[in-house]
Amino acid sequence: MAQDDPARSMLTVGLPVHNAMPYLPESLESLLQQSTDDFQILAVVDGSTDGSLEYLHSIRDARLRVLEQQHCGLTFTLNRMLRACQTPWLVRQDADDLATPDRLARILEAIKEHPDAGMFYSNAAYYPRRRSVGLYRCTRGTPDQIRSVARSGYLPAICHPSATLNVAKTLAVGAYRPGIQCEDADLWWRMALAYDIHFIPDVLLLYRQNANSLTTRNLHEQALHGLYVQYLLLSQLQSRVPETLGQVQDELLALLQKTPLVAKEKLRLFNMHLGEGKPVAALRALLSSFVASPRYVLGRVRDEMLPSGSIANGVEPQLFQQRKDTLWPQHSSV
C-alpha cells in the first residue's frame, strides 16, 4: 500500500517509552502493520536505559518520529507529546500494548462521522487474548451518558491507551495536570463536561497487564489519587475551592474502601497469572479476590455480561458531602 503524505495525516499515534523492552517491538509492529498508512507515530523516549532508544533508531519508516528527554515521568511526557503532535488527533497507546490491525482505520471512520468530538475511546481486551479473559471495564454509552456520569459526581471509566484525543480541545481544557497519578481520569471528566466523548464498541486495543506497570505497582496510591480526582470533580460541580491532596489526604483515606481494593488487586493478579500460563496461581488469586469482596467480583462479572453507560469509577458522592466541612473548609465560590 502506498504511504499517504504524512503532512496530510489526521492521526498521530503517541508512544511514551520508558524502559519498554521487551514489549516495544511487538507494540510498534502492530502499528506498522495497520490496514491504513494514513498516520504518523511519535515516540517520546523518557530516559530509557534498556535499549528502547536504540531499537527505535533501528526502524526505517518515514512515519516514525523519535524524541528523547531525560526521565521526567508520564504526565510530562504525555503533555510534551500533545504539544509536539503535528496532526489534529493524538491516538494513545502504551509501549507494551498492541493495536488491532484495523484500529486506526476504525478511528478515522469515527472521526469522519463525528468531526466535532473532543475524544474517542474503544473497548480493550486483555492480552495475551488466548489466555487472558474479559474486557477492560469501561463506561459504554453515548456522549450524553458519559457526560451524565461526570455531572452526577462519578468518574467515567476509560482505558487510557484506548483513547484518541482532539489535540486542540485537550490543550484547551488544560491537558494532563501534573502531580496527580490518575492523570487520565482527571482529564476524562474535564473533557466530558466540555466536549462530546464517543465510545467505539469494537475491541481496538490489546491491553497487556504486567507486574512492572505503574498501575500494578501503585494500586493503593492510585486509589487515593482516584478519590482526589473525584474530589476535584465534585469541587468543580459545586463551585467549591478544592484543597491540595496533602490537606485532604486523611479525609480521603477514611473513604478508601479497602476490601474492594484488595479484591481488585487479586483479580488483576488472576488475569496476569493466566496470561503467564500459570493456572494454579490464577485460581488462587481468583479465590482470594472473591473472599476479599464477593460483591466486587460479582459486580465485575455483571459489568462484563451487562455493560452499560452507568459503569463508572469512584465512591458515592454523598460520602464526600458528609465530610464537606473538612474537605471544603473555605466555603467560597470558585
Report on the structure:
The protein is of the alpha/beta class and 334 residues long. Helix content is 45%, strand content 16%. It has 15 helices and ten strands. Strands 3-2-1-4-8-6-9-5 form an eight-stranded mixed sheet. The chain has a two-stranded antiparallel sheet with strand order 7-10. β1, α1 and β2 form a beta-alpha-beta unit. α7 runs parallel beside α9, α11 (258-275) runs antiparallel to α12 and α11 (258-275) crosses α13 (294-305).
Layout of helices and strands:
Blueprint: E1 11-17, H1 24-32, E2 40-46, H2 52-57, E3 64-69, H3 74-84, E4 89-92, E5 98-99, H4 103-113, E6 119-127, H5 143-151, E7 155-156, E8 164-166, H6 167-172, H7 183-194, E9 197-208, H8 214-217, H9 219-237, H10 245-255, H11 258-275, H12 279-292, H13 294-305, E10 312-313, H14 317-321, H15 324-327
Parallel strand pairs: 1-2, 1-4, 2-3, 6-9
Antiparallel strand pairs: 4-8, 5-9, 6-8, 7-10
Helix pairs in contact: 7-9, 9-10, 11-12, 11-13, 12-13
SS-based class: alpha/beta
Q: What's the main sheet like?
A: 8 strands, mixed
Strand order of the largest sheet: 3-2-1-4-8-6-9-5
Instruction: List how many beta strands DSSP finds.
Output: 10
Mean pLDDT: 90
Query: What series of H and E elements makes up the topology?
Result: EHEHEHEEHEHEEHHEHHHHHHEHH
Our Rg estimate from Cα atoms comes to: 20 Å
Uncertain runs? none
Number of alpha- plus pi-helical segments: 15
Give the % helix. Answer: 40-55%
**SS strand fraction:** 15-25%
From the N-terminal CA to the C-terminal CA, the straight-line distance is 54 Å
Shape: globular
